Amino acid sequence: MKKTVTLTFSDGSPSIELPIEQGTYGKPVIDIRALGAHGYFTHDPGFTATSSCTSAITYIDGDEGLLYYRGYPIEELAYQSDYMEVCYLLLHGELPTTEQKTAFVQSIRHHTLLHDQMENVFRGFRRSAHPMAVMIGVTGAMSAFYHSGLDNFNPAHRIVVAHRLIAKVPTVAAWAYKFNEGQPFVYPQNRLSHAENFMHMMFSSPCEDYQPNPVLARALDRIFILHADHEQNASTSTVRLAGSSGANPYACIASGMASLWGPLHGGANEAVLRMLEEIDDVSKIPEYISRAKDKSDSFRLMGFGHRIYKNMDPRAAIIRQTCYEVLDELDLRDDPQFKIALELERIALEDEYFIARKLYPNVDFYSGIIFRAMGIPTSMFTALFAMARTAGWVAQWHEMLSDPAHKIGRPRQLYIGSARREFVPLDQRKA
Ligand code: SDX
To answer: What digits encode the pLDDT tens for the residues 43-100?
Structure first.
């Protein structure tokens, strides 16, 4: 017997019975699609309690601090898998066999180059352009290079798009960095692993040999795994909404990058480092904790809090461990920002304000310390987040278009504007 809920109205209007759906895990959902016919909308600004779609890709339990990609716990994937396997898993639903992985990695490597003319797109920016602005522009411009013969409703075409974007976005990110630095673009070396290739494009130059540090490459690969997908977050929802109209997928991923860039979302890792630099000394932490609690002060503790996690973000714990590994490898264990971050976390987690609101470090709190230790500038932090999240964006886009019942997204509203009124000619208007 399907579970239902009955809406009754205090004014005696006829009650409405609505079906309740239960997924594999998580809160059951009330299917409200019939409400419109009964003359009602639901109202949920910020979508704090709204399921926007059916998905089999990622599950998050915010109370327990759980994160599964296709049923696999993030801790197991982070320490036992690699980013290429996770890309395959997110896209196809299963971990690849040896043959499937070899073919997948080969296909990704085949697409790492950008069309030669795209160099001109980079050169249209000022040298000082923020890497995210460049990534959004160049990724969106790909829709001009890959548009003909692209049928969003052909699964094979969608898989090619997914491979192209997973392969090319790291090249775009690295070239955005080189463009900022005034250095020549470095072409991908496809004999390298995904993370090593990114490091090669970021840090090598025509003038000297460069060998990616394997410990740092492994740490970067793990960070890419942790950032690969996260259910229906703001940027993924942006990609889905843009893609629901049948828009060019390269343009849709560019829209996801735009949403991720916000400091409340993927821009938080950059904001965390700037916050730690501003705090500058552990003795100033209490002052900033007070400011974070002061409603009249716009300052927030960047890298803390999460819409869903009311427990430790499982990714933050793994990244903190990775932080220790990277700083040890680089003999930077006394990194001042890391010390401030550890002390800030300790103090905040003992403070009633943060405890009462279940505010814990999130994925962005420690990642910036690792990136900076690796020599990656703060302005590139969100670009790395976008690189990693491209796997989740394309998987969610592919899943949405694979559903024959999918519809164009078109939310409604609670209108609070003027009632109907007559037009007033210009010469009769009063201030
Ligand atoms: C990501 O959605 C995802 O999955 C995102 C992400 C992903 O992988 O895609 O996980 C990646 O975006 C992580 C979050 C990165 N952002 C930050 O670190 C920015 C700082 N954090 C916040 O701005 C905030 O916590 C949000 C935006 C993350 C969540 O905000 P919500 O869910 O809308 O919560 P809220 O703003 O309603 O806050 C609830 C209370 C408020 O206090 P009261 O009004 O109840 O008194 O908590 C307070 C807030 O003022 N609060 C904070 C705070 N975060 C929330 N107070 C101080 N510092 C903070 N960081």
So the answer is: 999 999 999 999 999 999 999 999 999 999 999 999 999 999 999 999 999 999 999 9
Cβ(357) – ligand 1 distance below 6 Å: yes
pTM comes to 0.95
Q: Nearest-5° angle of CA 26, CA 392, CA 220?
A: 110
The active-site residue out of 130, 163, 230, 306 is: 306
Q: pLDDT (tens digit, 9 = 90+) per residue, 237-249?
A: 999 999 999 999 9
| Cα 306 to averaged position of ligand 1 atoms, centre (Å) | 5
